Task: structure prediction
Amino acid sequence: MIIVTIPGPPVAKGRPRMTKQGRAYTPAKTRAAEGYMRHVISAQAGQPMLSGALAVTVTAMLPIPVSWSRRKREDAATGALRPTGKPDGDNLAKSICDAANGLLWADDGQIVHLTVSKVYSDKPGTVLTVEAA
Result:
């Protein structure tokens, strides 16, 4: 089992953009976030790439908005209130799974079981857990 913790607010995979010439490109914010995630994953992984079928769990810990009332912030911190808006869980998983390609596994096509959770936390970040399926 491999557990990687990526500090900082989770960033979802952005939709590809098109140039006037019809070429697709990844938005700069997504490229920068994936680069940061790759750096953290490579520093924490320290082992050969996994082969075969994989089960992956992504837990995105989103920051609690400071503009919320004290009671609402407390509810978010205890888990009584869960994030139901943006960013989408599937886009969060896509971002981190793409960043781990070539570091933890050869291709994210090896993932046969994927679980994504969004929670609020005082310490935003993403926890990636990988194990053989």
